[in-house]
Design a protein that fits this description.
By secondary structure, this protein is mainly α. It has one domain. 95% of the residues lie in helices and 0% in strands. The protein has 1 helix and no strands. The radius of gyration is 18 Å and the shape is rod-shaped.
Length: 41
């Protein structure tokens, strides 16, 4: 029982980390877009 509970917790943590990585990549993309807009001006 305890082993499966630990595994489930690990899966939840992995999902949360994956979500953080996605948000970070989106942030980087937005920064790149802003920089390209500034370069155009």
């Amino acid at each position: 029982m305890t082993g499966t509970q630990k595994w489930k917790r690990r899966e939840v943590q992995y999902e949360k980390n994956a979500a953080k990585v996605e948000t970070n990549s989106e942030r980087k993309m937005r920064i790149c877009m802003r920089r390209s807009e500034y370069k155009k001006e």
